């Protein structure tokens, strides 16, 4: 059985809806069974899903989102702090009370959501490390379909 379009190209797997990916990531849902078992801490993944046994360690999410999120959130909060300062002229300690905790909360929660979203997408797209897919079975199946 060959999944080919009229053009002769293989079907692409369906791309998951962004809202369902972000919802699953924000809630820490297992991409296989939907149980809220993805994280064992604030931003640390659990080793496996406690319900279905999915091995989270086999996914390579890494720390890619960390730098991007820190820069993006820092930019947004710096602009907000400048606007706040120009509008209200508060003393420095007010800035410290508002912006330091807000920055920490936004970075940690943003990192949790971003890492979770990457894991959900990797699972749904069956992503692997470059060069780790076994291409021989695919060639063998193609040879059988030609004969």
List its salient traits.
mainly alpha; elongated; disordered C terminus
Total DSSP E strands? 0
Q: Averaged pLDDT, please?
A: 82
Instruction: Tally the structural domains.
Output: 1
Written as H for each helix and E for each strand, in order along the chain, the element string is HHHH
- How large is the count of helical segments? 4
The rounded distance between the terminal residues' Cα atoms is 13 Å
- Shape descriptor reads elongated
Rg estimate, integer Å: 22 Å
Overall helicity: 40-55%
Overall SS class: mainly alpha
Low-confidence stretches: 1-5, 134-145
Main sheet: strands, sense, barrel: none
Query: Hey, roughly how much beta strand do the residues contain?
Result: under 5%
Organism: Croceicoccus ponticola
InterPro entries: DUF983
Keywords: Membrane, Transmembrane, Transmembrane helix
Protein name: DUF983 domain-containing protein
Structure described in brief:
This protein has 147 residues and is mainly alpha-helical. The protein is 54% helix and 0% strand.
